[in-house]
Amino acid sequence: MENQTTTFSDIFKNSFLEGFDLARQNLTVANVILALLMALGVGLFIYFVYRKTYRGVLYSHTYNLSLILITMITTLVIMVISHSLGLSLGMVGALSIVRFRTALKDPSDSVYMFWSIVEGITLGAGFYLLAIVGALCIGAAVFGISFLGKAGGDTFLLVIHCDQQGERAAAQVLKRIQKKRLKSKTVTRGGTELTYEIRLPNSRTGFVDELLGQDGVIDAALVSYKGDLA
Q: How many CA atoms lie within 13 A of 196 on its CB side?
């Protein structure tokens, strides 16, 4: 009688294949619908968090909607991978040739996209409770960070066109603003252009009208700015 030796590789291979067999048994229409509905709910939550905490200049509704679709599509992909060994290998090969050429202007947008993908992976693997608890915790953290960021006020760029007399008058008006920084000063034959980075508590912009009333100030423009004033 020959001795049969079981190696770690055999144990891992058997466990791996048994896992796929069990996954195939759990693949039903009800489970697929439940996973996609869960993905839709979590995607809508991510949509809500992104919309409420967005601090940029131009909000993209299309990008925000894509976060919901990414969550659902990732869930479906993971369900396919986890329920079929052959399809999983083919899908990995197919996805490896996909190239996304759309550049994200804000680093936080890539974080939200990664969040949607991770939630989709978790839901597709069947860890519904983990996905919901994770989404709630991350959403609470995002709201907390956003609240702390807005506590100091909103950041703007102030552009002033003036002459030499208006420059001195503008400096007197801006003394009341504690957080400000001169970004650029352009002097031409027609006058001077001053660009300030300022932070305003509660978006109090009444000083702009006061600037325009100063002698030598031609015009003043206040533009929302996404940067952070140190």
A: 22
